[in-house]
Write a structure and sequence with these properties.
By secondary structure, the protein is an alpha+beta fold. It is 22% helix and 34% strand. The chain has two helices and six strands, in the order βαββαβββ. The strands form two sheets. Strands 2-3-1-6 form a four-stranded antiparallel sheet, covered by helices on one side. Strands 4-5 form a two-stranded antiparallel sheet. β2 and β3 form a beta hairpin. The mean pLDDT is 93.
């Protein structure tokens, strides 16, 4: 299950993001979204868990919780929009 995690501190690293979710289950991948020009985190990322039940545990455990003075947002990631199309 792929999760969106937002309102992350800008200085967080991908290993830290993975470690944040690992108490809830097996983290398959963790990816921070960074600005292409500065390389700085945009404050959100995606984590893939090995099963839906683990994904729900992460959502229950992190959504609305405070991490480094920021209130995290965690929910199921929406599939990316196809190139050339906008979401409406």
């Amino acid at each position: 299950m792929k999760l969106f995690i937002g309102s992350l501190p800008y200085n967080i690293t991908e290993p830290e993001l993975s470690a944040l979710c690992s108490p809830f289950g097996d983290v398959v991948s963790a990816k921070l979204i960074v600005d292409q020009f500065t390389g700085q985190s945009k404050g959100f990322g995606f984590v893939e868990m090995s099963s839906r039940s683990e994904g729900h545990k992460v959502m229950d455990g992190l959504n609305g919780k405070e991490y480094n003075h920021r209130t995290l947002v965690c929910n199921e990631a929406k599939p990316p929009a196809k190139k050339g199309q906008r979401r409406r």
